[in-house]
Specification:
Elements: E1 5-10, H1 17-29, E2 32-38, H2 49-59, E3 66-71, H3 75-81, E4 86-90, H4 94-110, E5 115-119, H5 130-138, H6 149-166
Parallel strand pairs: 1-2, 1-4, 2-3, 4-5
The chain binds 4'-phosphopantetheine.
């Protein structure tokens, strides 16, 4: 019987509950799903590729048919390299559609044998994006329920380090566990 292998490419900076929701849905309809994190030299991500990989690996450890990988270059080339036949992308709202359609059609032009499958995450995540999560977290808002706890923890660590750096703390170059830990004002 034909097995369907799909890739779920993205930046995942950071991965959110919306991504996880889509991964769960994808894992149910594809035999194999690879979450593929793009290394984009043009972007300056908040989280390193290694951090994003670790977070996604932890988030997806409960799914037998889901793995995490990183790639550079064209998504279609990566898909061919790992012998996937399908690209999974999420559409949250109509506003996503135009960009996603454009990408899907360009990918089809580049590689006609690959199909893009769109899935919708749960409605409760329809407003959720990595960009907004970063912004809310950086400005001290609550990101509970938007990202898994391990991602929230990593975000808090990043923001603590950034605040210490801004305040000229010499320990800022080190991870919070290595540096002097200052109490941080928590906002709910
Ligand atoms: O999570 P994102 O940032 O919306 O993901 C966008 C991504 C990584 C899927 C897209 O930028 C991409 O595929 N980049 C790889 C380069 C490529 O293939 N470009 C042509 C796309 S039509």
């Amino acid at each position: 019987m034909k097995r369907i292998k799909a890739i779920y490419p993205g930046s995942f900076d950071p991965p959110t509950n919306g991504h996880l929701d889509l991964i769960e849905r994808g894992s149910k309809i594809f035999d194999e799903l690879v979450v593929a994190i793009l290394r984009n030299p043009e972007k300056d991500p908040l989280f390193s590729l290694a951090d994003r990989r670790k977070m996604l690996e932890a988030m997806t450890s409960g799914f037998d048919n889901v793995s995490v990988d990183t790639f550079e270059g064209l998504t279609v080339d990566y898909a061919l390299r790992v012998e996937a036949t399908t690209i999974l992308r999420g559409i949250r709202a109509i506003s996503d559609y135009e960009y996603e359609l454009q990408m899907a059609l360009m990918n089809r032009k580049l590689q006609p044998g690959l199909e893009t499958v769109f899935m919708m995450p749960a409605e409760k995540y329809s407003y959720l994006s990595s960009r907004l999560v970063r912004e809310v977290a950086q400005l001290g808002g609550s990101i509970a329920c938007l990202v898994p706890e391990l991602v929230a923890q990593k975000l808090r660590e990043k923001i603590d380090v950034a605040h210490k750096f801004e305040n000229g703390d010499p320990a800022a170059g080190k991870t919070p566990s290595e540096g002097k830990s200052k109490s941080r004002k928590k906002k709910s």
